[in-house]
Amino acid sequence: MSDPETGRAYPEGWPMPAEGEPDPPPAPAVPPAPPPPGQAPAEAPSAGAPVTEAPAPEVARTPVLGEAPPDAAQDGHDAQLDGEHEFHHPLDRVTGRLPRRARIVVDWIVTIVGAVAIVLAIKAWVVNPYRIPSSSMEPTLHCARPAPGCEARFSDRVLANRFIYHFRDPKRGEIVVFKTTPEVKRKCQAGGTFVKRIIGLPGETVQVRLIRGREYVFINGRRLEEPYIQQSRRGFGPEATYHVPQGKYFMMGDNRASSCDSRSWGALPRANILGKVFMTYWPPNRISFR
Questions:
Q1: Whole-angstrom distance, CA of residue 26 vs CA of residue 23
Q2: Using omega within 30 degrees of 0 as the cis cutoff, is the peptide bond preceding 37 cis?
Q3: Active site residues
Q4: CB-hemisphere CA count at 13 Å for 222?
Q5: Which of 51, 197, 192, 90 is nearest to 138 (CA)?
Q6: Residue 111 confidence (pLDDT)
Q7: Other C-beta atoms within 10 Å of 277: how many?
Q8: For residue 184, which of 152, 180, 232, 236 is within the disulfide window of CB 3.0 to 4.6 Å?
Q9: Which string of b and e fits 97-110 if b means at least 16 CB within 10 Å?
Q10: Got the DSSP string for 88-109?
């Protein structure tokens, strides 16, 4: 609301002065509050000087019921970190009171023993390396010259999968490593671990026939295709027929003319098969998977 003559604004509800009546007196100024006792009065800022706000007073926080004070929480955190660094692993709980050098020796011994145990477990149940010592598997697996019939400068080294036959039966054509039987040792004048190829399965009839003076294998009357056999390495007989008992396998080398195998010592029990050869890893130029 404003006076139409003077243009002066009045608050809502404020009575306007009548004509010829003087303006109402201005509202009295309110003096500033006196400072607290012992505190100097604040100086009025000079014109043009920047005005800064005083920082708010710091209010102490009252801890909630059940909450640890900040200092106590920090002390507990430091103590927890100290405890974590005191025992790096469970072995420290056993050797924690030993001198530092003794702890280092014990730690090394445990590390070496653990590594050896892991390697032995892998070799016994997972994968084991073997070296090819003779020419019975030439030319598929090489042996080193000057041994008779060997073609290579270095013997092949292979890896055998030792757990696969826990989950399935051996198959025809697979190259396997096996533990020799007493009959094998007697016939071949050697023992230990042999490497041969599975030719006959349990319950089958294996025949060796001569065709143009060379040996060929027939399974249950049907000729077995063997692309891994070189013609010059086929045997010369004699012809024979073998019946493979249940639970046994008929083993032959790829170098038929120089292999002491099931033709001499009979079928091999499955329990003697150690694993399937799946890789040649040495020498580098012979690296391959099977």
A1: 9
A2: no
A3: 136, 196
A4: 6
A5: 197
A6: 84
A7: 23
A8: 180
A9: eeeeeebeeeeeee
A10: SSHHHHHHTTS-HHHHHHHHHH
Which tokens in the block code for residue 223? 């000729």
Instruction: Measure Cα distances from 220 to 112, 204, 226 in Å.
Output: 54, 6, 16
Which one is predicted more confidently, 181 or 107? 181
- CATH number of the domain at 157-289, please? 2.10.109.10
Give residue-wise pLDDT tens across range 59-69.
556 555 555 55
Percentage of the residues of the chain whose pLDDT score is greater than 70: 67
- Report which residue type is found at 118: I
Closest CA to 172 of 228, 108, 97, 230: 228
Tokens 């005005």 sit on residue = 51
DSSP assignment of the chain equals -B-TTT--B--TTPPPPPTTPPPPPPPPPPPPPPPPTTSPPPPPPPTTPPP-PPPPPPPPPPPPTTPPPHHHHHHHHHHHHHHHHH-SSHHHHHHTTS-HHHHHHHHHHHHHHHHHHHHHHHHHHTEEEEE--SGGGTTTS--BTTSTT--BSS--EEEEESSGGGTS---TT-EEEEEPPHHHHHHHS--SEEEEEEEE-TT-EEEEEEETTEEEEEETTEEPP-TTS-GGG------EEEEPPTTEEEEE-SSGGG--SHHHH--EEGGGEEEEEEEEEESGGG-EE-
Residue boundaries of the structural domains of the chain? 95-125, 157-289
Query: 10 Å Cβ neighbour count for 87?
Result: 12
Phi-psi region of 213 (alpha: psi -120 to 50; beta: other; left: phi over 0): left
pLDDT digits (tens, 9 = 90+) for 101-136: 887 888 888 889 888 888 877 777 789 999 999 999
Tokens of 122: 């892998």
Q: Kindly list the distances between the CA atom of residue 132 and the CA atoms of 19, 144, 195, in Å, as whole numbers in the listed order.
A: 131, 8, 8
